[in-house]
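Data availability (excerpt). The following record was deposited with the supplementary files.
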Amino acid sequence: MSPEKSLFELSRPGRRAWSLPELDVPELSLDDYLGDYLREDNSLPEVSESDLIRHFVRLSILNHHVDKGFYPLGSCTMKYNPKINEQTARLPGFTQLHPMEKETLTQGALQLMFELGEYLKEITGFDAITLQPAAGAQGELTGILMVRKFFEKKGENRTVVLVPDSAHGTNPASVTLSGFQSVQIKSTPDGLIDLNELQRACSDCVACLMVTNPNTLGLFESEIKTICEIMHRYGALVYLDGANLNAYLGIHRPGDAGFDLMHINLHKTFSTPHGGGGPGSGPVAVKKHLEPFLPSPVVKFSDGKYWLDYNRPDSIGRMLAFHGQFTILVRAYTYIRMLGANGSKEVAECAVLNANYIRKQLEGIYDLPYTRRPLHEVVFSGTNLKQFGVKTLDIAKRLLDYGIHAPTVYFPLIVPEALMIEPTETESLESIETFINAMKEIASDARTNPNNLLNAPLTTPVRRLDEARASRQLDVNFNG
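Predicted structure:
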């Protein structure tokens, strides 16, 4: 396959992809707008409309995406996005709505937001919710800021948040941004929170424990009720990183287990497009004692109308302009309504089934550091292939030659040479078996022909990049 030329290489003087009327305002130089961003000769590419369209279509075909192939990206839940979601999100009544319109003219949008909040509260077992946060990480920050405000209101100076070593990597960052100190809790050899370690770390200085459940190993914390009881004895709160909600959707309600608050990744569990920087959505659900601290405004319903409640003196304030990622909310609402209660439960059942099928098929071919049965994702290790000079990165790169996106690698950090695999519930048996067979062939190649892995990918338009150089030298040099 010949490499795709850049627009500047396709450029020919005098060609245009547009036709505009004569200017009726003074003409300005490109320097006035772009300045230092222009090339040295101050030129922009000149191409025809057909060349322009074909260029970007060819690029789009080269890109890997969920509509093109399998995405076993652990803890990121990159699954198929139903096209009905896109249709509802593009309804003119939503796309042409301005966020500063009067409430009397936005009743439909407010109703959708209110009902989505009610569904999420029922699914998770909490009493109140905000849809405002723009992603899971911002949801974490929102939640921990509420924790801080909760203790400030009580007049307690708590400074520490406990974070298990099996948690998502954004948790300690959210803790630090919120003004707390992060203290790590080690896992047991079984991959679960060590209750003895937890007890030793508890004190009157601890404000909260952040739990990812199932954790990044895909394992459900079987002692979660006991964990919540321990924290509550010290007057601390328990926060759930709900990024893996798709593992128990319709089966387990974390609010019933003793959690005080959680964030929900709508863009993961409820099938909205994400990746490449967004868009995301990270609503935060809370128990009643934290409801006063929710970001303002909150959507309410009374006297037959929907309205925005700004009268919230204890609120942490706004986390995002206006009312959240609205079209993402529309997509998630559609997904929930289309599935219903039974369909939502099947999401979790199929996600768990698919992950454990992969686990069983690849057990013994790759190292399995934790033998406890996982839920939605399984973590292997490539340590058994290091004797052949092959690393996990080589496995990931070689998968690209099979038309499969690489899984998460080198995370969680507590697993050496980690391969975190999440098939999601939307993949067919045939798709999963294609992945399994590719992983088996790669393991065989590592033993008999390791150069195939060390030089991979071999068939993609762009071969293996110098990632260390790329992280240090950000300028793109097409001449190498």
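Summary of structural features: The chain has two domains: 89-338, 342-470.
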